[in-house]
Amino acid sequence: MKALVFDDPPPCTNDPDLFFPYSSGMGALILESQAKSVCRKCPFRLECLDFALRRDDAGIWGGMTKKERRDIKKAARLGSLVTCTEQKSALRTRYDTYTESQALLDDGLTLHEAARELGQTYENLRDQRAVVAKDIMAGLWCP
Question: DSSP per residue over 54-112, as a string?
Fold first, then answer.
């Protein structure tokens, strides 16, 4: 299996322990949330998630836990995972918009301000974010 190779190191290399929380309970949930926040802003998220979906490693990869990745694999085996090549470009664009808007929201902007910053209407951005969030949760996306 081919290893991930990057020209610039991904943000997760700054604190690798964050992506492999070994504690349990609330401590693990806090670390998981922090790791996912780093992933949301990472330009390599989809590549990382694609890599992780082909393996069975512990930890948070591409913004998902091992259990979340297993759920995606299960959905794929059941035929409910969208993998159409024709949809990759549209999904990538929609996902990129979601990621960019999430970074702006994490920086303290409102959704209205984020929409203006991205050159979109509030309604369009709101709807795109809802679709992507639903797709991600349902495993309906193309790696």
Answer: TS--SS-BTTB-HHHHHHHHHHHHTT-S---GGGHHHHHHHHHHHHHHHHHHHTT--HH
